[in-house]
Write a structure and sequence with these properties.
By secondary structure, the chain is mostly beta strands. The protein is globular, with a radius of gyration of 25 Å. It starts with a strand and ends in a 7-residue tail after the last strand.
Length: about 350
């Protein structure tokens, strides 16, 4: 690392470091986390134009491969520029690669955040104001797990590698964002807006997912699932706290088929499902969620699949969710019409 600045200014207590050049290799076991005690601050008057060239961060807590052997993971910033000046916009431009084992992908990030660092040095993490663009190609999801501290919780749902494009423009009073994701297990296209402390989708959001036994233990094999969210209106999480009061949500789920599931009961019953349709609608998720289910189901056993017949349910779930987003089976109440499995001739 090299620093270019005025020695006279530093001697007088100045904190403008001029241009700071950074390169090399760093190994990290645990990523730094906010202490949670008081606001994050930097010295008032801090100034630096950081230039990064070939900076590699090796993640020591690497994932364990299928053969039980740990694989190395890391991120290399090949080119980067970060302008840090208190009371001025934070400007970031980064590009580089990320890898885990033999998998390697590329990424780039551009951001201009005018209100992130105040003149007093306080970092306003709750004010996402400005413009952010990020994209990644063939990025290893295992690296994302390491950076997010979510080992084993992303790859089973997304897959080993993914392409991602996301953007944000505005602030928490008026802004818009997008997320486009494509991987071997999932694809998503989401456009959303933020206004008056609420997040909404203006056009239907489509998510395609290939569920596997690694993500859903009851499945016997992969199942394609398509989710269409046609309405969403909810309060923005403040400081990470979820508040579902007054939220509304409408979605439809369609599964491919046929597929088999194993029930988590003493008999470990196996059911073959040809196709499943689910719709979810609520304007008060804490007190009422309308759930409609229909499909074709048959019991599976050693002799193959038994007679397949239609099933349907029109339910109202009460107390399933708490206001802070937790699932509460202890308070769950179920109402509505659940005739169960019908005979093939349509009789109950």
């Amino acid at each position: 690392m090299s620093v270019q600045g005025s020695l006279i200014d530093w001697a007088r207590g100045g904190r403008d470091f001029g241009t700071v050049a950074v390169s090399g290799t760093v190994s990290m076991t645990d990523l730094p986390k906010p202490s949670g005690q008081g606001p994050v601050t930097v010295p008032a008057g801090l100034g630096a134009d950081v230039r990064i060239t070939d900076l590699t961060v090796n993640l020591a807590n690497a994932a364990v491969g299928a053969d039980g052997i740990a694989v190395s993971a890391g991120v290399t910033v090949t080119n980067g520029a970060i302008g840090i000046h208190t009371g001025q916009p934070l400007e970031v431009m980064l590009s580089g690669t990320s890898s885990i084992g033999a998998q390697e992908g590329a990424f780039s990030v551009e951001a201009a955040l005018p209100d992130l660092i105040g003149a007093d040095g306080i970092v306003n993490l709750d004010q996402l104001s400005g413009e952010v663009k990020a994209n990644a190609r063939n990025v290893p999801c295992g690296v994302i797990e390491q950076l997010a501290g979510q080992t084993g919780r992303i790859v089973p749902y997304i897959g080993d590698v993914a392409d991602v494009d996301c953007s944000w423009d505005g602030d928490l009073d008026q802004g818009e964002g997008s997320l486009h994701l494509k991987s071997d297990l999932a694809a998503a296209d989401v456009l959303f807006t933020v206004a008056d402390g609420r997040v909404r989708i203006e056009t239907p959001a489509l998510v395609r997912w290939r569920a596997t036994p690694a993500a859903v233990e009851a499945l016997a094999g992969p199942v394609p699932i398509e989710v269409s969210v046609t309405a969403l209106d909810a309060k923005l999480p403040v400081g990470g706290a979820v508040d579902l009061s007054g939220a509304s949500f409408v979605a439809k789920v369609v599964s491919g088929g046929p597929f088999e599931v194993t029930m988590a009961n003493a008999e470990a019953q196996r059911w073959a499902i040809e196709k499943l349709y689910v719709s979810v609608e609520t304007d008060d998720p804490v007190n009422r969620i309308a759930l409609k289910v229909s499909g074709m189901v048959g019991e599976a056993g050693g002799d193959g699949v038994g007679a397949v017949s239609p099933v349907s349910a029109d339910l109202v779930l009460q107390g399933l969710l708490t206001a802070d987003g937790r699932v509460s089976l202890a308070t769950l109440g179920v109402g509505g019409d659940c005739p169960g499995r019908a005979n093939p001739d349509g009789t109950g």
